[in-house]
Amino acid sequence: MSDLFTMTWEKITEEKFKKMLSKMPIFHRHMTEVTATQKAESNAKERSSRTVEEEDLMRAMFSEVPMQFYSLMIKLLDDVGFNYKKYNLPNKNGSSVK
Question: What is the pTM of this model?
Answer without folding.
Answer: 0.87
